[in-house]
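S.,

Sequence below, as promised.
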Amino acid sequence: MTQTLLELRKFVIPEIIIGVDARLLIGRYISHFNAKKPMIVTDKNIQNFEWFHETVNLIRPHVNKLFFFDDTTPNPKDIEAMLGADLFLSLGCDLIIAIGGGSVIDCAKCISIVASNGGNILDYEGVDEIQMPGPPLICIPTTAGSSADVSQFAIIKDTAANIKRAIISKKVVPDLALIDPVPLMSMDPYLTACTAMDALTHAIEAYVSNTHSALTDVHALESIKLISQAIEKSVTPQRSIETMFQLMLGSLQAGLAFSNASLGAVHAMSHSMGGLLDLPHGECNSILLEHIIRINFETVPDRYRDIARQLGLAVGNVSDHLLLDMVIARIVSMRENLNIPSNIKVDNFKESTVDYLVENALNDPCMVTNPRVLTKEEVRMIYGRVLRP
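The prediction came back faster than expected:
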């Protein structure tokens, strides 16, 4: 047992109900919170699905009034969170129900923060900057990727600076997550691919994080195995509820790992890149992952050997050099089979754009827990490989 595993660590999770039709228990849990005026935070697309209306109809008998906030977008923005908080307070709401993917849930978390603490949501950037807990928050995730429904993280876009900001606090951990694979069956295949790669990245980064623990290691390794087995099947027309449940369970385990071990350079660079260019978060992670593995590998080769086994690779006693090639090849194969590109074209590409990305990535909180310190030149080199004019 290493010295790191003997160090003190905390482990924070919400109450979790997972399984087919878990969302249908929503009425019972609203009663537990004694809430009478909940606000549902969602997006407009989700409201097109029958399972959404079925869920909403189960809420109505338990409340006096039900309100909706659906002015949310991918890569949620500070102005959306502020609008939602204003609505929550003006209506006298007493519970937030987030039904959506990571963007919706992050927006709901930020609404909760401002509703209880006031000010601007960007005031709470960083670690443990929130003083007061928010109103109760129930999450019904509709993607298997972000794990925002179980994590201590909320990511919000600063629209003035055009960058994503990370808010990290146990006060943003939801009170309840109803994790149900049924909504995943209505997900677009490319969204499925990107969100699943986000979850896989969570697990890999948590396992090599310099703040990993015995508890986070267990969840990270199991997540890598579950996701790598299900991810390519999950984007086919023949995908089953069993496959989507496996993906969702893997995403949950990844969330439990990274929420308590934090992340690394992939997410630091992805936050910067996705915020400025308004790109899908999972797509950014997928493109960056192989490059960060290559640069981190020599620092923690034994950890990547464990990861390789969970990816289904027969590593045996192969050399570290060959092991690295095998892990990279597996990650690239997954990305290509999911039809995720290896780089992104940037309109009006300028060197000053890269300068901005590098500066913000190096200042991201996730960079602190990367297993090795990246130099400005290394970050610039990676951006140079994944962004093209």
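The chain has a mean pLDDT of 96.

Coffee later?
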